[in-house]
Each structure stands twice: as structure tokens, then as C-alpha cells.
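Minutes, project check-in
Item: structure for the 233-residue chain
Input as provided by the requester:
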Amino acid sequence: MTSTVPASLTRTAEGAALQAVLLDMDGTLVDTEGFWWDVEKQVFAELGHELDEAWREVVVGGPMTRSAGYLIDVTGADIRLEELSVLLNDGFEKHIARGVELMPGAARLLAELAAYEVPTALVSASHRRVIDRVLDSVGHHHFALTVAGDEVTRTKPHPEPYLTAAAGFGADPWRCAVIEDTATGVAAAEAAGCRVVAVPSVAPIAPAVGRVVVSSLEEVDLAFLRKLITGTG
């Protein structure tokens, strides 16, 4: 985990209904979910296997160990999990080296959170090496804290990543708004006790208590997130 939490940010959060905003990366903040699937298809093609499109919904949003392990199991590919993880990360880095695009509404939301000094964290199942490369394009300055999948003992769908981020801000998870695009990430956030805005990217996500579903980040602003926490509106 990396953290550069200015004292002014944590002071601003004290006593506020909304204490922090925690964002997923792939498919939520940046348009990269398709990159992962493209890399997975390419790597397995080189191993002599064709991936079924139906498997995409199974692996989306999951940690590398789960997604890669699942694809090894269903294809029967002759490769160790550790070797496959390296190939996938290397392939993904080549894709993002060309630059990444923010999801619609993401730039405006990040700017608004910064303007109002809302503590903001990036919480991803991707590895640190990948997060840092993405942030080279997006801007490290948007986040006072980042949590990578290879920096926690148990990554999504376990609540540890979101509990780690909330603790890093000294925030109550129930007063943290999480923005996620997959069922795996939503499960992690809700298990941590956070309120969730789901912006489905690959597979649908149903509304639930403490969770709202939107079609785009263009529907989300600071007022929206404050209402999510207070239960008004």
C-alpha cells in the first residue's frame, strides 16, 4: 500500500457524513477491462487454447490468482500459475504503455473530489506494477492512498483491501463510498461495510440495500455520494 495522506485531508473528513471515496481501477476508473481479456486470449492462443467468451464474466474483476487459475483449469493449459501471471502482467503493461482512457465522467468526478478535499483512494486487485503504470497516465496526484492486490494478504472479494483503505484514512467503512464495476469488487466493499455505487462493465449487477447501480460515472458527483451515505434523496 502506498499512502500520501495530507493532514488537511483527514481533518476535512472529521465529522463529515462522507469520510472517503474508494475507487476500483479497471473498468471503473479506466477503460481497461477489455485489455485484460484481450491479453488473456492472446496468451492462451500462444499456448494452443481458445478462450470461450462465456468465461469472461467469470474472470472479470477477480484477483490474478483466481482468474488465471480458473483459465488454466478450464483449458487444461500446460503452464504454472506463477508463469501465467507474469505473462499476463507483461502483456497488460504493453497495452497500457500506449496510454489508457478514463471512463466517461471519471475526470470530472476526480476533479470535484480534489476540489472539495475528499480523501480519495484507488483500491485494485491489480498488482502494484500495473497500478503505477496506469497512474502514470491518469495522474498519481488524484489519490492520497492506493492499495494493490499484491500488497494485501487476501484480495477481492475479501474485504481486506477496502478495510485497509478505510483504515488508512482513519475512516469508518460505513461512511466510505465505494465505486465498483464488478460483482467481485462489490462483494469486497459490502463485506467491508462500505456503501457501494456499482457501474457494471461486463456483467450486470442488481441493486441492493446500501448499493445503487448506475450506467455511467457521469451520473455520479459529490452530492450523489453524500446522499448515498446519509440515505437521503
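Outcome recorded: The radius of gyration is 17 Å.
No further action items on this chain.
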